[in-house]
């Protein structure tokens, strides 16, 4: 096992395309670290630099205390599991799993022992004589993992290994990979664009955007205390409601103006910020489960109309538009769009398109973001 350290790692393609920009991150021994972000954010490039498949433009990368910037992939003692499995079609499962050991020069008895151990961990004992074409997608992925496990590497690297599987198999394999990683206790770096995978699998999650690390934290802390507007909107399904609006201060609370509708919320700025002057533009964030339906208009309620409902079995997602929030203050003279919210409701909630509902935003779980740079304005507890 080994600690992995990215220290100011940058990768530039061509003249000025910064795929990864000044990445600094420490991954502990035995930790399951997930890199997540939209396509083109730099997560796969970071993984490929760790594997030695991409050169590092600047910064240093170490594995187990050894700088590996100029170390060949085969000498880094890491094992990579690819998206497309990369199995040899003419070889049996047993030969696929043990091939790297054969090339390394291990004895037949040693190869047999390690392959059998990996097959037991991966529940592949009954499939050792089969070729890849006779396996399901999930079984092929387990074979690819077996090939990595037998090498007993310092780190596992996984590049979107579940993207080719159907939804049911993805859930099963998420559990399987997490189980195996805990069993082996090897540092694992896992790349995905799926934030559900990131939330359910990682000990910590590193959120990337345009080559830059936005935040690294436990899944729950990312969800509860996002560092900026991007992380808030990316982590969570459905995503956080993010509403650009105006705010004005008063008695350690802030009046938030949604057009003609106004509510008050606690204002918990960091020490570097003062309470806003009247008319300051901010972004208010609230999770769908924190949009609360109440009976009738009262203090701090917003009047909304149901525009759409999505019944998902265990819950209903209700898309709401706030009434009387359209203005004509856009630069081209056009009317701006009404403010919209998504609320999460119980599966048997009686609600129909066109209904008028009154909602409150949970004050304990409201977030404020700088409307200019997107940074969170709230103090981390």
Fold and architecture overview:
The chain has 381 residues and is of the alpha+beta class. It folds into two domains: 4-234, P-loop containing nucleotide triphosphate hydrolases (Rossmann fold, 3-Layer(aba) Sandwich); 241-370, Nucleic acid-binding proteins (OB fold (Dihydrolipoamide Acetyltransferase, E2P), Beta Barrel), CATH 2.40.50.140. Helix content is 23%, strand content 33%. It has a six-stranded mixed beta sheet, with helices on both faces. Strands 13-12-11-14-20 form a five-stranded antiparallel beta sheet. Helix 2 packs parallel to helix 4 (137-149) and helix 3 (108-122) packs across helix 4. The model is unreliable at 327-335 (pLDDT under 50).
Structure summary:
The chain has 381 residues and is α+β, with helices and mostly antiparallel strands. It is built from eight helices and 20 strands.
Q: Please give the alpha-carbon distance between the first and last residues.
A: 33 Å
Strand content: 25-35%
Sheet of most strands:
6 strands, mixed
Please tally the β strands and state the result. Answer: 20
Query: In terms of per-residue confidence, which ranges show pLDDT below 50 for 5 or more consecutive residues?
Result: 327-335
The run of helices and strands is EEEHEEEHHHEHEHEEHHEEEEEEEEEE
- What's the CATH C level of the largest domain? Alpha Beta
| CATH fold field value of the largest domain | Rossmann fold
- Name given to the CATH architecture of the largest domain: 3-Layer(aba) Sandwich
Looking at CATH, the homologous superfamily of the largest domain is: P-loop containing nucleotide triphosphate hydrolases
Query: Radius of gyration over alpha carbons?
Result: 25 Å
Percent helix, as a range, is 10-25%
Number of helices: 8
What is the 3D form? elongated
Category from helices, strands and their pairing: alpha+beta
Let me know the average pLDDT.
89
Tally of distinct domains: 2
Strand order of the largest sheet: 6-7-8-3-9-10
């Amino acid at each position: 096992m080994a600690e992995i350290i990215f220290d100011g790692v940058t990768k530039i393609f061509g003249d000025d395309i910064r795929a990864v920009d000044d990445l600094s991150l420490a991954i502990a021994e035995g930790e399951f670290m997930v890199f997540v972000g939209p396509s083109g954010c730099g997560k796969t490039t970071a993984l490929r630099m760790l594997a030695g498949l991409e050169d590092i433009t600047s910064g240093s990368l170490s594995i187990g205390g050894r700088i590996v910037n100029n170390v060949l992939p085969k000498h880094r003692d890491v094992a990579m599991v690819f998206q497309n499995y990369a199995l040899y079609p003419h070889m049996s499962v047993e030969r696929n799993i043990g091939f790297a050991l054969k090339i390394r020069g291990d004895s037949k008895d040693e190869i047999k022992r390690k392959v059998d151990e990996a097959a037991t961990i991966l529940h592949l004992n009954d499939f050792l004589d089969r070729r890849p074409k006779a396996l399901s997608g999930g079984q092929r992925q387990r074979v690819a993992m077996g090939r990595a496990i037998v090498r007993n590497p310092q780190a596992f690297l996984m590049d979107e290994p579940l993207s080719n599987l159907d939804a049911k198999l993805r859930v099963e394999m998420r559990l399987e990979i997490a189980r195996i990683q805990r069993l082996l206790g090897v540092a694992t770096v896992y790349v995905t664009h799926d934030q559900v995978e990131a939330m359910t699998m990682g000990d910590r999650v590193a959120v990337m955007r345009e080559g830059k690390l936005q935040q690294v934290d436990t899944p729950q802390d990312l969800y509860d205390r996002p560092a900026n507007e991007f992380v808030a909107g990316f982590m969570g399904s459905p995503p956080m409601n993010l509403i650009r609006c105006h705010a004005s201060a008063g008695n350690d609370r802030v009046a938030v103006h949604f057009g003609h509708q106004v509510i008050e919320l606690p204002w918990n700025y960091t020490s570097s910020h003062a309470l806003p002057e009247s008319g300051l533009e901010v972004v208010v964030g609230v999770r769908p489960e924190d949009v609360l339906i109440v009976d009738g208009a009262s203090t701090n309620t917003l009047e909304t109309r149901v525009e759409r409902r999505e019944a998902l079995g265990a819950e209903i997602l209700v898309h709401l538009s706030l009434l009387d929030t359209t203005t004509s203050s856009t630069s081209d003279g056009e009317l701006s769009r009404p403010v919209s919210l998504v609320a999460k409701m119980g599966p048997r909630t009686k609600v129909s398109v066109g209904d008028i509902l009154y909602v409150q935003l949970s004050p304990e779980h409201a977030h404020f973001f700088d409307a200019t740079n997107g940074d969170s304005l709230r103090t981390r507890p």
